[in-house]
Design brief:
The strands form two sheets. The chain has a five-stranded mixed β-sheet with strand order 5-4-3-6-7. Strands 1-2 form a two-stranded antiparallel ribbon. The chain contains twelve helices and seven strands. Strand 6 and strand 7 form a beta hairpin. The protein is α/β, with parallel strands linked by helices and about 325 residues long.
Length: about 325
């Protein structure tokens, strides 16, 4: 869906009941069209961008009068403030653009990858205040998400768990030796579709958290022996798996009570206790927040500083995501 379709879909879903609701809807649509026109016209587009800012200001002045939910009001604020920030950036009005961006974030805008890639915000990204704002927002969101993930973690060990194994690289690895580290133990197999989908998420986690996190892949294949091991090695090389892999046997499977299916991913705290058991494919963000929750717990309640995730380019250039 393109940016204009997103805007129209949002506007149409709002059961507006304020005075002159048609004018509010029309203002949103007109302001967006002016933003697009102003960006396309380059240096000659200043009047259109200035009119867009004025129209968004009118929307913001009326939003409290809309008889809709607080969540939908927040969405309207996100649209108006974010697109105002983009327009101010294109106008070279950095201070005003940063203030609008701050307001969008306070309204709940959280697509930080977009902020790092949107061409419309290029002028703002040259200012250190932009990066400070982004860093503070990312830390706040990570903290909130980690707190939510904390509720998923069992306060006590789910079951006793230990291992001492030989990895595919020939190294000896034991859980006892990993005390003091947050550990993920992933039971998976190359034959398992959901497992193969989840592996890139684990790779990304290992690269992001580095020495703060240890991942062990307990690889269970339907056949045993040299051929199965060679298949795992090929798969690991193809995906660039950076963490330890172990050819698991029935004995290692039996260490997990009531193993229901693959993948089964265990999250262990720094004391070696299994605090969460996730069965089936999980999204990267969900896995990441469980790691953050364990790391924050280990650090006394504060999420660790980690490198910012790589920010992809937006799907299409334009004024904001709406």
């Amino acid at each position: 869906m393109n940016a204009r379709a997103l805007l129209l879909a949002l506007v149409c879903c709002l059961p507006l009941a304020a005075q002159e609701p048609e004018q509010v809807q029309a203002a949103l649509e007109e302001a967006y069209a002016l933003c697009v026109r102003g960006q396309e016209q380059g240096a000659e587009g200043r009047p259109a961008l200035e009119r867009a800012c004025a129209r968004y200001a009118e929307v913001l002045a009326q939003v409290e009068g809309l008889q809709i939910s607080g969540q939908k009001k927040a969405l309207v604020r996100q649209i108006a403030h974010y697109n105002t920030a983009c327009a101010r950036s294109l106008l070279g009005e950095v201070d005003a653009g940063l203030e609008a961006l701050k307001q969008a974030l306070e309204a709940g805008y959280d697509d930080l990858a977009r902020l790092g890639a949107d061409e419309s915000l290029a002028a703002l990204r040259q200012n250190p205040r932009f990066h400070n704002l982004l860093a503070r927002t990312r830390a706040k969101l990570d903290g909130e998400a980690a707190a939510a993930a904390q509720s998923v973690l069992s306060p006590e060990a789910l079951f006793p768990f230990a291992f001492e194994v030989t990895t595919l690289d020939g190294a000896t690895l034991s859980l006892d030796a990993l005390r003091g580290k947050v550990v993920i133990v992933d039971y998976w197999g190359t034959w398992c579709g959901p497992c193969r989908q989840e592996i890139p998420h684990l790779i990304e986690l290992q690269r992001e958290f580095g020495d703060l996190l240890v991942i062990v892949g307990m690889t269970y294949e339907r056949t045993q022996g040299a051929e199965a091991e060679a298949g795992v090695r090929r798969f690991a090389k193809e995906l660039g798996i950076p963490y330890a892999l172990v050819m698991a046997d029935r004995g290692l499977l039996e260490k997990v009570p009531n193993l229901e299916g693959f993948p089964t991913t265990l999250f262990l705290d720094a004391q070696g206790r299994v605090r969460a058991k996730e069965v089936g494919y999980r999204e990267h963000g969900y896995l990441r927040q469980l790691v953050l929750a364990l790391l924050a717990e280990q650090a006394g309640g504060e999420a660790p500083e980690t490198p910012a995730p790589e920010e992809p380019a937006p799907e299409e250039p334009g004024i904001g995501p709406f």
